[in-house]
Give the backbone structure.
Amino acid sequence: MHALADGGSGDTVYVMTTKDRLHQVVDGLSEQEAADALDYLVSRSRDPLARRLDTAPLDDEPLTDEEHESLREARADFAAGRTVSMDDLRRELLG
């Protein structure tokens, strides 16, 4: 935490940094959750595609009618249980 002097009252105000908040969240994780989070963070930092996606600008263009329809279809498929597991997808894509 970083201390900031309050301009008028003389009181000290403490501001939590992002890293402080991250430490707080990590402290609340189980060992398995912490291991999973660490694996995720390490994999993201080593994957050049993930880094590019993380730094890419947000797509702020409005969705087209076709895209809205595709989303409705996808949500209906999901709600009806028409999904593919990651294992099945890996087998299909990677052989």
Residues 31 and 62 are 42 Å apart (CA to CA). The first helix runs from residue 18 to 27. The radius of gyration is 22 Å. The mean pLDDT is 87.
